[in-house]
Amino acid sequence: MIVVMIYYKYNDFKADIPKLREQCEPFNADTIIAVARGGMTLAHALSEALHIRNVQSIRVESYDDEHQREEIAIRGSCDLSVSKRVLIVDDIVDSGRTLTTLIPLLKKDHPDIEFRSAALFTKSTALLQPDYSLHEAAEWIDFFWGRDFLKPDLL
Predict the structure, then answer these.
(1) Which end of the chain is less packed: N or C, by CB atoms within 10 Å?
(2) Terminal CA-to-CA distance of the chain, rounded, Å?
(3) Which pTM does this prediction carry?
(4) pLDDT tens by residue, 62-87
């Protein structure tokens, strides 16, 4: 099986942050939850762009390397006791299973909080589309944060 891959460079990321900020700004989130690990770099950048200090993460495991798992595992929790509007951030919404698992769980535990989601890339076939997104993903995305910091023998 041949996997077509595109490389998402830092300069593309830097240019995309103001565009995604513009989409997310009207929601006026007071908290960002990064879906670890893929959403952590984006969550940090958006927190700076949106001036949001309450940034947390939750680990959602849906992939082993490039293979999607049967079951999604959610590890950890977030303290949303002072939150009213939460932006859930991930690098890509592929199948949509991460969001369709995570959002109902968060809503069940925090019914008075409004949740929205943001991603850089989204597949049109995802079960759930994020509220804010920039690019449609047709190929596997090789993000700079997943490649540029590897030891040379792992490239």
Answers:
(1) N
(2) 19
(3) 0.89
(4) 655 555 556 777 878 899 999 999 99
DSSP symbols for the chain: -PPPEEEE-HHHHHHHHHHHHHHHGGG--SEEEEEETTTHHHHHHHHHHHT---EEEEEEEEEETTEEEEEEEEE-----TT-SEEEEEEEEESSSHHHHHHHHHHHHH-TTSEEEEEEEEE-TT-SS--SEEEEE--SEEEEHHHHTTS-GGG-
Domains and CATH numbers, the chain: 24-147 (3.40.50.2020)
Tell which residue, 33, 42, 127, 31, has the closest CA to residue 74: 33
Q: Looking at this protein, which amino acid is placed at residue 136?
A: E
C-alpha distances out from residue 124 to 42, 69, 136, Å: 21, 20, 7
Q: Please, which pLDDT band fits residue 148 given cuts at 50, 70 and 90?
A: confident
Question: Known catalytic residues?
Answer: 90-91, 94
